[in-house]
Amino acid sequence: MLTDSDIIAVLPAKDINRARDFYRDKLGLEPSETPEADSLLYRGGHGTGFLIYQTDNAGTAKNTQMGWTTDNLEREMEELRGRGVVFEDYDQPGLKTENGVATSESEKAAWFLDSEGNILNISQRT
Description:
This protein is of the alpha/beta class and 126 residues long. The protein contains two helices and nine strands, in the order E-H-E-E-E-H-E-E-E-E-E. Helices cover 16% and strands 34% of the residues. The protein has a four-stranded mixed beta sheet with strand order 4-9-8-7, covered by helices on one side. A three-stranded mixed beta sheet has the order 1-3-2. A two-stranded antiparallel sheet has the order 5-6. Strand 5 (91-92) and strand 6 (95-96) form a beta hairpin.
């Protein structure tokens, strides 16, 4: 039943206006809809999208909450850094980054935080 349905991520925001500014100014994204006064809907490729809604629970997750795939990770990171995005560095069992990038046999990946403390990811299959 759900196999052919579009998938949408849902992210929390403590301040929906601050989140809108971050996604516009840092990521170059504009909401396609504002279903409610305290939510923003963004559309991506191939029927994908994500919703941001206002809640006090934002920024409490310690895991990756949403990610994008790309065919050129370095180019995306350079553009995002130029917009002021700061990539996280990790050095823990199973995950070590160099200059913000973790590399495995199958992919390269980088993580950053949005204005609300959500952990976001960009990855490239190798």
